[in-house]
Amino acid sequence: MIKKMGYHWHLRQVMATRGMFQTSELVPLLADRGVHLSREQVYRLVTQPPQRMSMDTLAALCDILDCGVQELIEVSVVEQAVRKTATGSAVNAGTPPQIRRATIRWPDLT
Fold first, then answer.
1. pLDDT tens digits, residue range 8-50?
2. C-alpha angle 77/83/86, rounded to 5°?
3. Domains observed in the chain
């Protein structure tokens, strides 16, 4: 079994519990804490799980929302079954093998 790490981003829910429903409300609050993001960047931060985020931004969000990191990010572990092939490489057991079309070419006898 291989453990694959994942996470769920709860910024929108945490904002709603604090009475913040507009993503634009975060822009000046972040700027007060030295984090300067455009409205579009803040919108993406709220509506989509970030792939990368600075620690300054995370700390500012925790301060603004008066919450801990664990309220914003829920870490999850997904275990995947893996089987070994004859060559020794690992293959995901839940994935069917790739199908390739064969092309038969007859030798040119002329």
1. 999 999 999 999 999 999 999 999 999 999 999 999 999 999 9
2. 150
3. 1-110 (1.10.260.40)
